[in-house]
Amino acid sequence: NAGVTQTPKFQVLKTGQSMTLQCAQDMNHNSMYWYRQDPGMGLRLIYYSASEGTTDKGEVPNGYNVSRLNKREFSLRLESAAPSQTSVYFCASSEAPGVSYGYTFGSGTRLTVV
Amino acid sequence: KNQVEQSPQSLIILEGKNCTLQCNYTVSPFSNLRWYKQDTGRGPVSLTIMTFSENTKSNGRYTATLDADTKQSSLHITASQLSDSASYICVVSVVDKLIFGTGTLLAVQP
To answer: What is the mean pLDDT of residues B78-83?
Structure first.
């Protein structure tokens, strides 16, 4: 009954370092998403994957790259971390693309860039 | 501009009391409206999803209402419990994306 699993839960990076956030879902969902949550703001979409083999930019894609490794896994990479990327990152999945389906969220990765 | 605004920003109530959280949106065209509960340090968990034609939907002690004419929604929590302490987020769908409100932080005290 894991749902959406994110690793790591916490990470501290120095400016300029790179890292990959991992996300895996076990619900056989086709679509996966990466959001960031900042204080005083609603969740904002970074990238999404409507189905295996496809990825598209969301609202705030600059500074990030993604890989849909297979149907289960969707990773988010920061190539050169900046303090502005300090945030809580959430991965989510849905049965199919579009807004008619429920989204299941992971527990988040809290990233601090110093 | 598509926006979702929630009020109040924060709320403190005593255990066992009822409360109502508000959501106003300027999103167009509207697809559906969701309420999520987010516990501290956790991801959002869906409470209800309502389409344009639905006026009310319940999930246990949570009841959401929707007035599509005035573009307002409310989430009513009945007989609050300590475990209801969380942030409640209103999310409105437009075309192909979700627009998230900033949430109402609810604290239930014994």
So the answer is: 98
Residue whose C-alpha is closest to residue B89's, from B70, B68, B62, B109: B62
B78 and chain A in contact, CB less than 8 A: no
Name the 3-class secondary structure at A85.
Answer: helix
Neighbours of A52 (CB within 10 A): 15
What would the pLDDT profile of A14-70 be if each residue is shown by its tens digit? 999 999 999 999 999 999 999 999 998 999 999 999 999 999 999 999 999 999 999
Strands B4-7 and A87-94: unpaired
* Contact: A102, B49; criterion CB under 8 Å: yes
Question: How far, in whole angstroms, is CA B18 from its chain's centroid?
Answer: 15
Alpha-carbon gap, residue B100 to B64, rounded angstroms? 16
Beta strands in chain A (DSSP E): 4-7, 10-13, 19-25, 31-37, 44-49, 56-57, 64-68, 74-78, 87-94, 103-105, 109-113
Query: Chain A: nearest CA to B42, how far in angstroms?
Result: 5
Of the residues A44, A101, A103, A104, the best mutation for testing chain B's interface (the one with the most B CB atoms within 10 Å of its CB) is A103
